[in-house]
């Protein structure tokens, strides 16, 4: 028998304890979120819903899908309801979420988005657009105004409906907001980058400064006074949803959810306490507001995400599919513990204890209920690796500290940048820099030359000049090529 589709009318068929804790019809769109992926739905949306429930304040989310209208349309067909299943090791717990009150495709809904971004009632914008959505130059961190999508948006900046990048939209939205009265607003990056607030603030300001708007200086002056870009750390492991997850959600709910998400039970959100206007009381659901997120941010990026990437490339070389599979090898746990120990001296004081953090990672990564594909984590390596490994590597090498685990990890990444005859990356990962990385292997180059060029492609000319590092990474390649992991 086919189950009815999940929507407001069908909610009465869902067991009562699995329904949203708030009535979505009582929420208003006061947050605009860019990036309608599974991570947002499992993280910020859950915090927002619980905060609305506990405070009685009507914080709802208008969620924007930047690239295609497809997910937004599917969500609209369900009255923006979807389920979130927590993958506990022994059992799963499913609940319908009602935090999202509007789902919009960025281009088709340009007029509505413009109205939301200028509305005084909307005081928070959040983003999960991944590292590549920021269009930063690898060498300087400035907005890459030569990137085709940014160049096109700068040329089209007078017409929001023509914009295709989130950075362009935010800049145009802020400009429209100041023209409409200029209520203060906070723009919150929830992507895995060090100092993500400053990174976002910079690229948005760079866009405004390069836009063909006569009032661009007035927009920049208003931004300096009335727009905040706090830094944040978001944490929750959210693997891509599978058909089996879809069926399990249907079995739990009794209705068909086309867009269920699954995630580990653990979640964390640490935010810099620097908002320009009203914000949801996310602390009621456990979010931490702190004066300086730096120590938490670097710990999470370098230990959790750093280990994730290392597991992704080493696991792929060893023929493994998921993080839990890699952890079940003889070397998985050793890799996590030894990478955490190697990187720990680079972490500022004031964050979590690295040894305890490593214990937690071993447990979280080993959760057999979470099928987190190594391919998913290994994708976009050219943007993730600089954040996760390279600054730690620089700090350690500047202090003449040995870096064997980071060298192994870099070699595993390098090994995974080789292209197949079909032109794709060897282990099925994707990366906007894949063709450029692949070219580093051409013409039977000497392995050290290849490693130097690969590091250059990451914008790390300084590390490419480090002969000791390049030699050590190149020396690791033959074993990896043969699928041998030697830690
Ligand atoms: C992962 C992250 O895909 C990846 O690169 O390392 O998405 C990771 O699962 C999250 O940051 C965990 O909070």
Q: What would you say about this model in short?
A:
With 487 residues, this protein is of the alpha/beta class.
Primary descriptors:
487 residues, Rossmann fold, 2 domains, 3-stranded mixed beta sheet, globular, binds D-mannonic acid
Structural notes for this entry:
By secondary structure, the chain is α/β, with parallel strands linked by helices. It has 2 domains: 11-290, Rossmann fold, CATH 3.40.50.720; 294-481, N-(1-d-carboxylethyl)-l-norvaline Dehydrogenase, domain 2. Helix content is 45%, strand content 12%. The chain has 20 helices and 12 strands. It has helices spanning 38-42, 44-55, 70-77, 110-118, 148-155, 166-179, 196-210, 216-226, 243-253, 294-317, 323-327, 332-343, 354-366, 374-378, 381-398, 404-416, 434-439, 447-457, 461-464, 467-481; strands spanning 28-34, 59-65, 82-87, 92-97, 100-105, 124-127, 185-189, 227-228, 232-235, 261-263, 268-272, 288-290. The strands form 3 sheets. Strands 5-2-1-6-7-8 form a 6-stranded parallel beta sheet, sandwiched between helices. Helix 16 crosses helix 20 (467-481). It is globular, with a radius of gyration of 23 Å. It starts with 27 loop residues before the first strand and ends in a 6-residue tail after the last helix. The site of D-mannonic acid has 10 residues, from helix 10 and helix 14. Its EC number is 1.1.1.17. Belongs to the mannitol dehydrogenase family. It is an enzyme of class 1 (oxidoreductase). It catalyses: D-mannitol 1-phosphate + NAD(+) = beta-D-fructose 6-phosphate + NADH + H(+). InterPro entries: 6-PGluconate_DH-like_C_sf (IPR008927), 6PGD_dom2 (IPR013328), Mannitol_DH (IPR000669), Mannitol_DH/Oxidoreductase (IPR050988), Mannitol_DH_C (IPR013118), Mannitol_DH_CS (IPR023027), Mannitol_DH_N (IPR013131), NAD(P)-bd_dom_sf (IPR036291).
């Amino acid at each position: 028998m086919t189950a009815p589709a999940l929507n407001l009318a069908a909610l009465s068929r869902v067991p009562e304890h699995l329904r949203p804790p708030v009535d979505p019809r009582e929420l208003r769109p006061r947050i605009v979120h860019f990036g309608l992926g599974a991570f947002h739905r499992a993280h910020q949306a859950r915090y927002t819903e619980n905060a609305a429930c506990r405070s009685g304040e009507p914080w709802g989310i208008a969620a924007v899908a930047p690239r295609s209208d497809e997910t937004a349309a599917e969500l609209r067909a369900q009255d923006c309801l979807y389920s979130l299943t927590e993958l506990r090791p022994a059992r799963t717990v499913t609940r319908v979420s009602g935090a999202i009150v509007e789902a919009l495709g960025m281009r088709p809904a340009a007029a509505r988005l413009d109205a939301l971004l200028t509305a005084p009632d909307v005081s928070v914008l959040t983003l999960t657009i991944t590292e590549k959505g920021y269009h930063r130059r690898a060498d300087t961190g400035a907005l890459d105004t030569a990137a085709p999508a940014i160049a096109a948006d700068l040329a089209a900046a007078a017409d929001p409906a023509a914009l295709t990048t989130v950075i362009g939209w935010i800049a145009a939205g802020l400009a429209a907001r100041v023209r409409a009265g200029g209520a203060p607003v906070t723009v919150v990056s929830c992507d895995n980058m060090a100092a993500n607030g400053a990174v976002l603030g910079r690229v948005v300001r760079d866009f405004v400064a390069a836009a063909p708007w006569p009032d661009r200086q007035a927009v920049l002056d208003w931004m300096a006074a009335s727009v905040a870009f706090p830094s944040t750390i978001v944490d929750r492991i959210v693997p891509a949803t599978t058909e089996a997850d879809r069926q399990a959600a249907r079995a739990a709910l009794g209705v068909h959810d086309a867009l269920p998400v699954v995630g580990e039970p653990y979640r964390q959100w640490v935010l810099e306490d620097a908002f320009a206007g009203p914000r949801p009381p996310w602390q009621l659901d456990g979010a931490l507001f702190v004066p300086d997120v730096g120590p938490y941010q670097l710990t999470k990026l370098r230990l959790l995400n750093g280990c994730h990437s290392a597991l992704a490339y080493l696991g792929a070389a060893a023929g493994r599919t998921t993080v839990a599979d890699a952890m079940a090898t003889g070397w998985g746990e050793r890799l996590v513990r030894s990478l955490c120990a190697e990187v720990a001296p680079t972490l500022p004081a004031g964050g979590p204890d690295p040894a305890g953090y490593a214990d937690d990672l071993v447990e979280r990564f080993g959760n057999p209920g979470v099928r987190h594909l190594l391919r998913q984590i290994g994708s976009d390596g050219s943007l993730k690796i600089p954040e996760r490994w390279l600054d730690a590597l620089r700090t350690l090498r500047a202090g003449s500290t040995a870096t064997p685990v980071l060298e192994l990890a870099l070699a595993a990444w390098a090994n995974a940048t080789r292209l197949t005859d079909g032109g794709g990356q060897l282990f099925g990962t994707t990366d906007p820099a894949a063709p450029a990385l692949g070219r580093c292997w051409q013409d039977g180059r000497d392995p050290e030359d290849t490693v130097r060029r690969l590091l250059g492609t990451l914008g790390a000319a300084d590390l490419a000049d480090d002969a000791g590092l390049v030699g050590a990474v190149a020396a690791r390649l033959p074993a990896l090529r043969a699928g041998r992991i030697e830690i």
